[in-house]
Amino acid sequence: MSTEQTQQKSSYRDSLKSMDTEEHIDLAFYRPIGYAWACLAAKLGITPNAITIASIFLGVGAGVCFGYNSLLINIVGMLLLIWANSFDSADGQLARMTKQYSRIGRILDGVSGDFWFAAIYIAICIRENNTSYLFISHPWLIWLIAVVTGICHAKQAAMADYYRQFHLYFLKGEAGSELDNSLDLKKKLSELSWKNNFFQKLTLTTYTNYTVQQEATAPAMQALRQELAKRFPSGVIPQSFRDAFRKASLPLMKYTNILSFNWRTIALFTALFLKMPWLYFAFELVVLNALLIYMILRHERICRKFTIELKDGKY
Known about the structure:
Helix content: over 70%
Number of helices: 14
């Protein structure tokens, strides 16, 4: 292997979050494509946030295509959604390659997916109300299902991201994780004014509320974080603890990946090919909610175990 190939391979690895948290589909498909987009963007001077914004337009376009009862148009939408997700991969890879990290970028990256799926949900509702006898007779029903599904989707994605960032915190340290604390965020928020920092305060307020909800869903994790801060005020956590927590947390990473993008789209595309897009809502409500509950319970049990061990002086 030439020096140039070796450097390129190393650069590609550096563009990934970690092998612990990467999914097989991403590694085989989205990450290589995302890396190619990221390299092109770096040469052209395009920022990660610009790529994220482009992905929003592609994802919303995909949603519009799913509103038609035509498989050909639906397939165009599928290709647009795949394209959007390759950009979603590229923005993060570009940020890691060029060190262009920002909280605004992280917020925008999360919001982009919300735009995609909001468009998809609306399209499915309109389509079902025009084609399904049940929903034609009860047009409010599919909208109610969509709202409940959307709320569940938001919780699923938020907790999957939270557990992934917590795992990365022990794997790569604070610099390699985007794990935040609501108390720190509220302090930063209090330093901003609506008059002079309107957009910054708006985005930080949204992100702070998002973080508060994550923390409220994982009380045992918060107890563990408090115990770690108490026992290691310098922030230097023993490597033995980091390794032990990573080993316990690693099996859960596959569930965080299932709750993310790829398996959702597999279910969505399957429902579209069957011409029963409402099945996608059923998949999120039944399968993904069950997985979310299991993941929360198991992760909380892990955190309680390590909190007890810290108090007993094991580390």
